[in-house]
Design a protein that fits this description.
10 helices; Thrombin, subunit H; 6-stranded antiparallel β-barrel; alpha+beta; 6-stranded antiparallel barrel; Pdz3 Domain
Amino acid sequence: MSTSTVRAESKVRRLMPFVLVVCLFVLPVAAFGEDDQSIAALRQMGKAFATIAGKASPAVVGIKVTKTTEGSAQLRGNDNGDQSNPSNPFNDQDLFEYFFRRQLPRQYSRPQPKEIAQGSGFIVAADGYILTNNHLVGETEKVTVKLSDGRTLDAKTIGVDPDSDVAVIKIEAEGLPSLELADSGALEVGEWVIAIGNPFGLSHTVTAGIVSAKGRNRMGVATYEDFIQTDAAINFGNSGGPLLNLDGKVVGINTAIIGPGGNIGIGLAIPINMAKDIYRQLKESGSVVRGFLGVVPVDVEPDMTEFFGLKDAKGVLLAQVTEGSAADKAGLKRGDVVVEFDGSAVDSANDFRNRVAMRKPGSELQVVALRDGNRMNFTVKLDQRPENVTAQGEPAEGSDHLGFSVQTLTEELAQRLGYEGLSGVVVTDVEPGSEADEKDIRRGALIREVDRERVNNAREFKDAVRNAQKRGKILLLVRYEDLDRYVVLQLAKKQ
């Protein structure tokens, strides 16, 4: 080892204590600097929330309604009168009733002639128009609005739309503060949002959170659902209040919570884009008219693709096309898979239903569908949506594989079950826990087709099941309560 190298190492060793002392003093200073920056960022965020709340709160109102209720000795729920159902955490209350604390009639309940409920709303026009929820102000005798300045005014219900749970009320006042409506379609999962309302009557409560998800549906709250999910705290009384973005603009109407009675971080809001057209129609005419195609769309499942000649599970499958409807006149048929509607791709059955409903009756639109794998174009002219759209048998061979039994549809059964003019086999029994049970095949359902071929009796059904065993799966067209849908069941593959 050279003399110069030894001297260099000795010098480094002498300097090490000094370096350590410097690090002990410098590193904490840097750490404190980083903490200061983090705290400053949090302060800025808090100020941003405070600014939004300060500007938006004057346009948020408290709503109190008086309703007439009827008592009843009838119990809604299990036919056997059992009021506790371990499979139903809502104790015989459906989701809608549970979310909004509507009092269900119970056995031996006393009549309650008056019910007072409280909720929220927000002003969208300086002359007193207010957006809120139908479940709050619908079918009420009296609606009063409390403004942020302390005034209480009677309100007139301009119109309600139970199908979307949107309502418009109006107070007689001028020069009121109002909120601007944003484009909820531009909202992204993870964005910050702020909810303002009157939970439990606590005026102008502000909570913040993020957008947890978009496009939530099948919640049992309304006919047309496309909810924004948020973890901003929402409780009873927040219904009808605004959900705001960081620009202080309304992106949704707070509508429901999921949980055992209070906020657990799962709140639902109606996208303001859905509410905009409803608001316009209610304001102009007091009612909402929707486009109607006359089909029952269902999501395409991956195991359905081979039956319909599809490369993937994109689009929606038409399980039913009503005779004489707009779809029927345009040439669409059951079994078609719609992949485009009005120039845009179709993502889901729920999205498709909502988009059709938002179009005006009489609108001419282009539909692209796949039929047996072939791409076809259709021009549809939408109708107006009607107001009200919505025994022992011998088991067939193969029912052990399917998890249910059937019998031929007779004239007597057809009259009793409402299947006049149809043919097929009726489900007489379903094995609990079977795949058929999990996919909601019920007693009294009518199976009209197997693997896209019509079946007229139990014998044809038995033969079709036997043939399907070679493939290991079976496609059924099932009708229940006037609605057709496709169901795929797995079978033990027959060698």
